[in-house]
Amino acid sequence: MDMTLPPPNDQELIERTLAGDATCYEALFERYRHTLRAAVLAKCADERDAEDILQESYVKAYFNLSRYNPAYTFGQWIYTIARNLCIDYARRRRSAGNTLSIDEPDGERHGRINPPCDTPNPEERIISHQNSRQLDSLMEELPAHYRTMIELRFVREYSYEEIAEQLALPIGTVKTRIHRAREKLCTLITDRKLL
């Protein structure tokens, strides 16, 4: 008789992650990585930008996991996060002189982008005490210049351009540092060095 337990469902993995087991979050994200990556690539033709959006979705979803509403599937929720990041990406590209619609596949251009609501609802204003502690611990492990980038990009939600202006850095340097900071943060989360 096979006594193998079935793999945990999404809600169980979310609960374990919120209890401090970051490996459960890695397992949860892996369930959706390929589908999410395909969706992001369909909206963003540049593979490096798509990879950045995917990493940003991973980090943003992790630090906002306490806000997850189980009325939706985790897949729907993280897709919404990625889609909003794609919208931000498209806005930045458009403001740089390129018109790009993320609502149409294969680069069809209709000039329609529905901007996300910038006003958080009351639930979105609350970050759990546990996630705040985890974020503080993770941030302490990062070099100061990466910590600043994570703070400005993910906590204050500045655009790349705003960060470049704030720190008087070239935008290329900002993008590189954010990319590297994200990678380091993802490694810390997965390795459970602080959880």
Question: How would you describe this structure to a colleague?
Answer:
It is a single chain. This protein is an all-alpha fold and 195 residues long. The chain has a single domain, classed as RNA polymerase sigma factor, region 2, helix turn helix motif (Rna Polymerase Sigma Factor, Chain: A). The chain has 9 helices and no strands. The protein has helices at 10-18, 22-43, 47-63, 74-95, 122-125, 129-141, 144-155, 160-167, 171-191. The chain is globular, with a radius of gyration of 17 Å. Residues 98-130 have low confidence and may be disordered.
CATH superfamily: RNA polymerase sigma factor, region 2, helix turn helix motif
The string of secondary-structure elements, in order, is HHHHHHHHH
Could you tell me the strand content as a percent range? under 5%
> What name is given to the CATH topology?
Rna Polymerase Sigma Factor, Chain: A
- The coarse overall form would be globular
Instruction: Report on the biggest sheet.
Output: none
**What do the pLDDT scores average to?**
75
First-last Cα distance: 37 Å
Summarize the amount of helix as a percent range.
55-70%
Rg, rounded, reads: 17 Å
Low-confidence stretches: 98-130
Mind telling me the CATH class? Mainly Alpha
Number of strands: 0
Tally of helical runs: 9
Q: Return the structural class.
A: mainly alpha
CATH architecture label name: Orthogonal Bundle
User: Can you tell me the number of structural domains?
Assistant: 1
